[in-house]
Amino acid sequence: MKAGSSLLNAVSAFALTAGIVVTGAGVATLAGVTIAEAAVVSRVEVRGNSRVDASTVRGNLTIKPGANFTNNDIDESVKRLFATGLFSDVQISVSGSSLIVTVAENQIINQVVFNGNKKLKDAALKGVVQSRQLGAYNDLIIQADVQAIRDAYSAIGRSDAVVTTRVVPVEGGRVNLAFEINEGDRTKISSINFVGNQAFGDGRLADVITTKRSGMLSFLTRKDVYDEDKLRADEELLRRFYYNRGYADFRVISSFAELDETSNEYVVTITVEEGERYVFGDVSIESTVPGIDSESLKGLIETRSGSVYSAKDVEDTILAISDRVATQGYPFATITPRGDRDYNNRTISVVYLVDEGTRAYVERIEIRGNTRTRDYVIRREFDLSEGDAFNQVLVRRAKKRLEDLKFFSSVDISTQPGSQPDRVVLVVDVKDQSTGEFGVGGGYSNNDGFTATIDITERNFLGRGQFIRASVGGGTKSREYTLSFTEPYFLGYRLAAGFDLFKTTDKSYKGFDEETQGINLRLGAPITENIYLSTAFKYSETKYSDYVLNATNIPSAPELAAVSRTVANGGHQIGALSYSLSYNTLDDQKLPREGISARFTQEYAGLGFDSDYLKTTAKASYFHMLSEQADMIGQVTVGAGNIISTGDNLRVFDHLFLGQETIRGFETRGIGPRVFNGTTNVGAAGGTTYFNGTVEVSTPMPALSRDLGLRLNVFADAATLYGNDIAAADFGTQRLVGNNMDWRASVGVGITWASPFGPLRVYYAEPVVKESFDEVKKFGFGASTRF
To answer: pLDDT by residue (tens digit) across 753-766?
Structure first.
C-alpha cells in the first residue's frame, strides 16, 4: 500500500516526539527522519508469521542491516510484501537498532469448487481463475476471478450469468472457496440491422460478417454470441467487402448492440456510408530507386484502367512488384500506391511509387495466443525471420497464409520498436480454433443399394499442422477404407509430402469379388501463390475371388477375360507416376463467388508392372457473381480426359468411366460404351476419351431467411465418353454398344445447406439426352461436418 507525500508532511510534527508512525495502510515514517534523510538498523525482526518463513519476508524488503534507508524504502518494502499475496496486513516500525516487521498472514485456500455450472465444466473454469488450491486467499484476486468467470460465460452467449462466492473456514487456518454460479439463459441476437446501405441488401451484408442472428440451430453454431471484439472485426470485413467492389469512400459510421433485459436479446445496428462507386483511371509505376526500370514492372500490374476499383487488386500488385524488386537486390524497397480521385468521373488513378524505404531489420518474432498450434507451424509461414530486412508486404502475405490455414479464428500481426532504432519486433496474435471434421455421406445405387461413407479428418494434427484422414464407406456389395497423412513442410521446406493407404472390396461385378489395396506416395510444392505442382507414385494390387457363374450372374466377356488373366497371374499390379498442375484464384474455398479453379493431370503406368498407359485429365471451373444484391452465383465447369495404351490393348478396368460424379442423373459408370450379351446389358466397358461441362446457378433459398444457410441450385450437366480399346478377341460372342461420341445431358435442382454439421447437398437430376442402355440415378446427397 502507498502513503502519499502529503500524509507524510502532515505527521512530520508528531514524528518529532513519537518513536514511529504507522499509517492505516501499514506504511511507517521514522522519528526525526525526513524522506531526504537516512537511517540504519543492525537487524530485521519478523513477527506474526506462522506459515511464511521469515527469510521470505526479509527477501522482499529493500532495507538491509547496516545500509542506509529512508521512508521511501519502507514504502517500497510494504508494497512488495503486499504484492506477494501472502499477507492481509503489514506494519513496519523501528525499535532501537532493530527494524520490526509485523505481518498478518492471509488464509490458505484448502479447495476451490464451482457450483451451479453446467455449460462450462470445472476444467474450463479453473483455467480462467487465479485462485488455486494451497494458494493464498486474496480478496482482490477473488474479485478478478468473479469477473473472469462472467467474461467466460459472456463468450458463450450468457451475459446475464451471476457469480457469487462463499467461504467456509476449515481447520488449520484454511478456507474452502466456492464460486456459486447462476448461468442464466443464453443471450441471443434477435436482429442485425444495417442502416445507410443502398448498393447491397441487408441479407448480402449479413453474409459478410461473422456475427449472426439467433436461429433454431444457433445453439450448435454459436455464431449468435455477441462479442464487442468480433463486432469490431466485422467492421473490417465490411470495409474489405466494399473496398473490393469499388466503394473506396466507404466507412462504418457506428456499430453497437443494445441489450433488451426483459427478453435477454441483443439488437445489433451497423450504420454505414457507402459513398460513390469508382473505377480505375490511369495506372502507372514510378521508381526513385536507381536500377529499377518502371517499364519492366508494368506487366505485374493487376489493376486495369476502366475496371471496377478493388483494394485487393491494388494489394496484389504491391505484392508482385515487391517480390520483383526484392529479387533484383532491393529488399528494403517500399511500394506505395498513390490514389488520385476524380469525383466528377468517379475514377481513381493509381501511381505505384517504388522508393528506397527505411532500413529496418526484424529483431524478433513474438507469437502469442496459440494454445494448441506449435510456434514453428506459425513461423514457417513467414518469408522472413530474425535478422532479415523488414518488409511490410511479406508480413501481409504471412498473415494471409496463416488465415488460409484455417487453424485460427483470428490472426493479427503488429509491430513494436526493437532494442535499436533500426530494429522491429513482430508480434503475432492468434486464437486457435477447431480443425477437425467428421464427415457423413450417402446415396443410393441401383447396383449397390444404399451407400454411406464416414470419415474423420484433422487438419492440424497435434498442433503440428499435419493433415490426417481416415474413412470407411460402402454399400451392400462394396467396402472402401482409406488412411491419409500429409506433412505440409517436409524436411523443413515448403514441400507437402504424404501417403494414402487404401483398400476396396467390390462384389458388384457379376460373377466375382474384387479386392484392391495399395499405397499412394505424394509430394507437392507451390510454384506461385496461385499455382501448385504435385507429383505422386501409386502402387496397387487387385485380386479376384469367389469366382461363381450362374444364369443371372454373368460378367461381360472382356471382364471375364481380364479376371481370368489376373487369377492366373496371382493378381494384377499397377505402378504409376503422375503429376498435376493446379491453378486457384477462388475468393472462398467453401462458397466461391469469384475466381477460377483449374487442374491438369497426367499419369503414366508401366514401370515393369501389368498395366501400360498414359492418362491425361483436365478440369476448370469459373465462378462469377451474377447479382450482388441477390447473392446469385454463376458457375461454368468444363473437363476432358484421355487414356492411351503404351503397350498392348487397355484392360477393361484401366478405361475411363463416367457417372454421377461428372454428370448428375446417371449412375456411377452409367454412360459410355457398354457390353451386350444378345439383348442383355452386362456392364460398362469404359472409354478412352471424355468431355464434360456444367452450368450452374445458385442463390439463397427464396422466401427463407439467409441465416438458415440454405441455397437453391439449378444446373445443367452434359458429358460424352467414347473410344473403347478392348482387344476384339476378348469380346467373344458379346458385342460393344455405344462406342461413339454421343452426348448425354441432364438438368436438375439441388439444395445446399451450410448446416452446423457442415455443407449438406441434395439434388434431383432428370436426364434429357440419354441412350436406352444408360443407367440412371436421379437422386443423390452427401454431407460433412466439423468437430
So the answer is: 876 656 778 899 99
- CATH homologous superfamily of domain 188-273? membrane protein fhac (3.10.20.310)
- Pick the closest to residue 303 from 248, 343, 235 (CA basis): 248
pLDDT of residue 36: 41
Do 436-786 and 108-182 have the same topology in CATH? no
| Rg for the chain, CA atoms, rounded | 36
Cell of 501: 493407404
Please tell me the CATH superfamily of domain 361-432, with its number.
membrane protein fhac (3.10.20.310)
State how far the Cα of 129 lies from the Cα of 491, in Å rounded to an integer.
41
Q: Are 504 and 481 in contact (CB under 8 A)?
A: yes
Residue given cell 525482526 in the structure block? 45
In which element (H, E) is residue 153 found? helix 139-154
Fold of 5-105: Ubiquitin-like (UB roll) (3.10.20)
Q: Are 153 and 172 in contact (CB under 8 A)?
A: no
What is the Cα–Cα distance from 564 to 544, expressed in whole angstroms?
Answer: 9
Long-range pairs, 674-677, Cβ under 8 A, ≥24:
674/736, 674/737, 674/738, 674/773, 675/556, 675/557, 675/558, 675/559, 675/731, 675/734, 675/735, 675/736, 675/737, 676/734, 676/735, 676/736, 676/737, 676/773, 677/554, 677/556, 677/557, 677/733, 677/734
Q: How many helices (H) and strands (E) does the chain have?
A: 14, 38
Alpha-helical segments (H) within 460-611: 557-568
- Domain 436-786, CATH 2.30.30.100 — does that match? no
Sorted by sequence, the CB contacts under 8 Å of residue 592 that are 6+ apart come out as: 586, 623, 633
Is the confidence at residue 743, as pLDDT, over 90?
A: yes
Residue 155: pLDDT band with limits 50, 70, 90: confident
SS3 317: helix
CA distance 92 to 69: 13
Closest residue by Cα to residue 646 from 605, 603, 688, 601: 605
Residue type, 569: N
Residue 713: CB atoms within 10 A of its CB come to 18
Place of cell 447473392: 631
Who wins on pLDDT, 326 or 767?
767
How many whole angstroms separate alpha carbon 672 and alpha carbon 666? 11
User: Which residue spans within 28-86 are E strands per DSSP?
Assistant: 28-30, 43-47
User: What is the layout of strands, in order, in the sheet containing 680-684?
Assistant: 680-684, 674-677, 735-737
pLDDT tens per residue across span 375-385: 999 999 998 88
Give pLDDT tens digits for 389-435: 888 888 888 998 998 898 988 899 998 888 988 899 999 999 888 88
Which residues, in sequence order, are bridge partners of residue 123?
A: none
- pLDDT reported for residue 145: 92
Q: Are strands 265-273 and 188-195 parallel, antiparallel or unpaired?
A: parallel
Q: Where are the domains of the chain?
A: 5-105, 108-182, 188-273, 286-355, 361-432, 436-786
If one counts every other C-beta atom within 10 angstroms of the C-beta of residue 228, the result is 11
Here the contacts of 301-309 (C-beta below 8 Å, separation 24 or greater) are 301/352, 303/350, 304/280, 305/280, 305/281, 306/279, 306/280, 307/279, 307/280, 308/245, 308/246, 308/277, 308/278, 308/279, 308/280, 309/243, 309/246, 309/248, 309/277, 309/278, 309/279, 309/280, 309/348
pLDDT of residue 327: 76
Grid coordinates given for 150: 462472467
Looking at CATH, the fold of the domain delimited by 286-355 is given as: Ubiquitin-like (UB roll) (3.10.20)
Mean of the per-residue pLDDT values of the chain: 84
> End-to-end alpha-carbon separation of the chain, Å?
49
User: Model confidence over 15-31: pLDDT tens digits?
Assistant: 332 333 343 334 444 43
Give the pLDDT confidence score for residue 19 in this predicted structure: 36
CB 574 within 8 A of CB 609: yes
Q: Which of 72, 78, 75, 74 is nearest to 103 (CA)?
A: 78
Class level of CATH domain 108-182:
alpha beta
